[in-house]
Amino acid sequence: MISSPYAKFTLKNGLRVVVAPDHSAPVVAVSVHYHVGYRSEPEDRSGFAHLFEHLMFGGSESVPKLEHPRLVKSSGGMLNGTTLPDFTMYFEVVPTSALDMALFLEADRMRAPLLTEAELNAQVGVVKEEILTNVASQPYGRYPDRITEVLYTTFANTHDGYGDFASLEKATLDDCADFFDKYYGPGNAVLTVTGDVTAEQAEELVRRHFSDVPGRPVPARPSFDEPTPTESRRTDVPDPQIPLAALALGYRMPDPTLSTHDYLAYVVLSDILTTGENSRLLRRIVHGDQISPQVTAMPLHQPFFAGHPDTFCISALLAPGVTPERVMAAVDEEVDRLAQQPPTLRELSDAVTRWKNGVFAQWDDPFLRVMGLGLFELLHGDAQLLSQMPDRLDRISADDVADAAKQLCPDRRAVLTLQPSGAPA
Amino acid sequence: MSRTIDEIRTSGAGPRPIPSVDIVHNPTLPHHVDTVLPNGLRVIVVRHPSVPTVQLRLLIPFADEDLRHPARSKVLAATLFAGTGRRDRFAVDADLAAVGGEAAADVDPSRLLIAGSALANGLATLLDVVIDAVLDAAFRPEEVALACQLVAQGVAVQRADPNAQAREALQRRRYGDHPISRATPQAEDVLTVVPDELHTARQNGLVPRGATLLLVGDVDLDDALAEAERATAMWASDASARLLPPAPPILGGDLLAVPLPDAPQAHLRLSAAGLPMTDPLAAPLHLAMLALGGGFTSRLSHVIRERLQLCYSAHGRLEYLTDAHTRSGAMVLSLSTATDTAAAALRAVRAELDRFRVEPPVGEEFEVNHRFAVGSQVLSVMSQRVLTNTIVGFVEQGLGVEWLSTEATLLAEASVDDVAGVARDFFGADRFTGVILGDVEALAGPLAEVGGVVRQ
After folding, report:
1. What is the pLDDT of residue A137?
2. Which of A29, A321, B57, B122 has the most CB atoms around its CB within 10 Å?
3. From the candidates B119, B129, B150, B382, which should be mutated to test the interface with A, based on the most A CB atoms within 10 A?
4. Burial class of residue B251 (count of CB atoms within 10 Å of its CB; 0-12, 13-18, 19+)
5. Residue B171: per-residue pLDDT
6. For all residues of chain B together, what is the average pLDDT?
7. Which of B1, B7, B20, B50 would you mutate first to test chain A, the one with the most A CBs within 10 A?
């Protein structure tokens, strides 16, 4: 159940460990969140963090190449990794009897990964394919994510995690060694174990496998903050593949770690704006003015999945013949209405009640649970925040939401439009 | 200064043995009830109290040979929760939100599926909202008009997706003009849908006999069953929910080249006849397909992607179909490739299919996939949502919750010889038909050399 006690401890080598037992299904999930994401990569190595994530599947001292996925699959489990702006995460979800093996595999590659020239070259090719498949040939492939190009000015905050072909081709094996030693030490990571295991069993296995991973200095983590824009910035992009024009509005958000309450006010605001038929923007622009078939408001990387700065993004497809300006004007009116007159208690409670259902769904899925526990511990200092979310949301007031709405100013935001090629802007 | 690559790859203590895993095969069925109400509605309630929520699925066979059905059914699904006699769309949303709930309808050529969830103590409200929509959807003219616009725009977006186009092309190739091929309506047909035909479709088609209501979550079985009976007491019809007409068998043959202008990639879809879920050979066929196309360590991925580097992705899976006459299955292989390696990839797939017939998985290859199939049964019930989706798949093939343990047993008992048998009888390139989508002008020469491809 979601209120199960957690156990937390830190090994001598600095590895932070979170254990959250849950016996509702005979599975366990294991994750390692390393405190480095694509925001940390240098400008001429765009896409490196994600490329390196691929390399971590290339085998390790005790595990030949391809054995890791084969072993996990052989147990009936699933595995993957993901690279986000501020962390890289690896996980396995396996039947309970495979916990020992899953922990062994993560420890072995944390301790001694196999990094080779051949694998580096192969994965550069694989990532290029991924870029072509997921991004270049998908309509709306990088939308609305590329709003960051418009809202921010530093390379860290503007670029996406895929990188470009030229940067990927420049990556060297020495780069990999440097990157691993700098960012993949146990002191720069959180290990999370959740599922059908007791805290005692988990601790015993974790100590057995991870105690002798050598500690290394934890790199200082710079702030990626930059000044809030003082004027609106806009970019218009023609796109030959899209059937409908699209609009994205990007705004700065409070610090999710240091100003969690204020950040949560934006999260509740996003629900009041676009969740459910009664939401403000669906009523206005989808059903009322009928100028958009689809509108979404939310933090760009899902709530709390990124550190500061995070982006509040309102994205809308445009009905045929409708200008972005028309939709922007309607959005601004509705946001201003909320700023002047706070939402009703009913709107607040509905948003919070829906969130509770969502938090339970997240807890119930072993992958989402281990992802959430690890990122809350790593980025925001406490894994327990995951299960505390409903209570924290209860404390958001209508005035808090109105204050957040006041911050969504037209003169401090980024505007991105995608236009079907050849169509008038 | 960091260490060298060689220093990094060696630890003080050296390589150590990997812990072994005991594959535990001991599925315990969740507590459940499975009954048919007097009105013909099948009700299944499953207790899985991991979190205080409940999942709802209402599955209604909803097939029709009428050419207007694809457009009409999409608009019906989009407006089912847009208001009833006693609730406008905002009241629907408000009632759901009060119990943390959501509900939406989805259609495909074979069925209408309502999916919903709520906090567990909101089950009665969730049922009330859903059944109210099924019995009394208002289809108000302004709602229908707007929905037609939105669905038409959605269709345009969908048609731009290469995967959706490949799917549509494959359906036409293997099933011809059978209604199952009509998943995506034409935008111009959608724009002409009117409330009257929606009322008729709802009244004639959304009927309880042949439908299944599934509730999974933190529920008391008797209470939940009583709630379901109460909520559906007024739902009655003489008609039975309509299944698809008999589907033609899938026959092997040439691939059809379909133009995708300006496409940077080519998309291959191959398909052959499979087996229904209940066939005695279904479990070995499942293992066979895992070995051939079941992801990262499969033959297709390992040979065509990793070794030959001819494609970006390669997967195979089984599908199941229920029509008015019978239950059947199919196999589908999907590859995406660069345009200039598409022909070579096709040749390689056919070679692997032929090889599979005479070199079926044995030894370690069999073991890995066998262990995965047995072990992954555990993951298929690991959360309310996943358990619900698993059971919906069973229900569509006329099965129930018990299939969880039956399937696990059948998979555990499947042998190397069983798999060799299905490899011999169901695989081989000549059993497959399919499509290849891409820049057919650039592909024409290379595909002509490979052979077995015709143009539109």
Report:
1. 73
2. A29
3. B382
4. exposed
5. 98
6. 95
7. B50
